[in-house]
Design a protein that fits this description.
Elements (H helix, E strand, L loop, with lengths): L1 H8 L27 H5 L1 H4 L10 H13 L4 E5 L2 H12 L5 E5 L4 H15 L2 E5 L4 H7 L4 E7 L11 H10 L3 E5 L4 H4 L9 E5 L13 E5 L2 H15 L5 H12 L1 H20 L4 E5 L9 H7 L6 E6 L3 H10 L4 E2 L9 E3 L7 H6 L9 E5 L5 H12 L3
Parallel strand pairs: 2-3, 2-4, 4-5, 5-6, 10-11
Antiparallel strand pairs: 1-7, 6-7, 8-9, 9-12, 11-12
Length: 389
Amino acid sequence: MREDRLALTHVGEHQSDYLNAVTPPVFLNSLHIFEDMDGYLNNGKTGAYVYGRVANPTVHILEEKVAALEQGCTAVAFASGMAATSAAILAVCKAGSHIICMRDVYGPVKGILNGYFIPKMNMTVSYWDGRDLGELEGLIRDETDMILLESPATFVFCAVDIRGVAKIAKEHGIRTYIDNTYCTPIYQKPLTMGIDIVMHTMSKYIGGHSDIIGGILAVKDEELGNVLKGNIRAWFGGIIGPMEAWLAIRGLRTLNLRVERHQQTAMAVAEFLESHPKVTRVFYSGLASHPQAELIGTQQTGHTGLLSFIVKGTAEQAKNLVDSLKVFEIGCSWGGFESLALCPLYAASGEELDFLGLGEEGRSMIRIHCGLEGADVLIEDLKQAFERI
């Protein structure tokens, strides 16, 4: 979209404010000063910068860009994706709140729900498979304040009916949150489908170079945005650093070009894996064989570089395959320039495997991120690794 390209390159930037430099500077100062006391006393009305824990000019440029990309009114940047997620929960929920959480969300999100919000704030959490809207409605209680989503979600890349969930939530006065990191704002815009809060982990595609940690929330509700920025972030002090914000801005410059290449490469790799005799199943949102392909086509305009597959064999064989890869490196993150591989459930408990609906074959799952080395290079690397098992 034309608007996306302009947001990536120009939105939020006012060169005349910084000596007509084509690239905005990194504002490393912690403090902003005023010409007189009236200016200081009225900063809340004028929106003037005061202190780096509350707001920063470089961070603000990043926030304007992401708000525009997600078609929201406000974006709020944090020091990590988990800081952003925690802020969203704190902004919406209270002691005693009930949360409905999609089963396949990022593991540490379930960790903080089970390890902090339940025991420390007396909250309750119901886990939902992400597919059955009737089941979702059955989980709603009077005290339900939030629904947490990720779509498509690793490890099996199931998609959520975003519009369907948003409609149900609004009928019950419940706030919705979605992790949109996989699709990026280029390929999916949940705010336009009725979601209240969209989160991105910026160490992934927004950063794109595996050199920053950061998270960002985008909203359409101005009041909610003010709570997230002026209360939760300012009070808890979770703002992203200006250098990391500047690197995220740099990453955004090429986001649309990079995700297109990631998609092209991942599609070729997924099709290669789907036809390989040593592969049982391939999970990629771009494949025509995906059981939710029709739904995905109504809410995503593209796909990126992350996928997983199950090796036809033992967990040890899957582990050996990963160890045999030469171009793919072993690492748990994704979204950067480099290709990565991991057996994410190799050491998982039987309870966790059952919780994810995979059973024992989940131990033989390999998740890969297809970087920018090219499909031919990655397929050749996979071929030689398969020959070793």
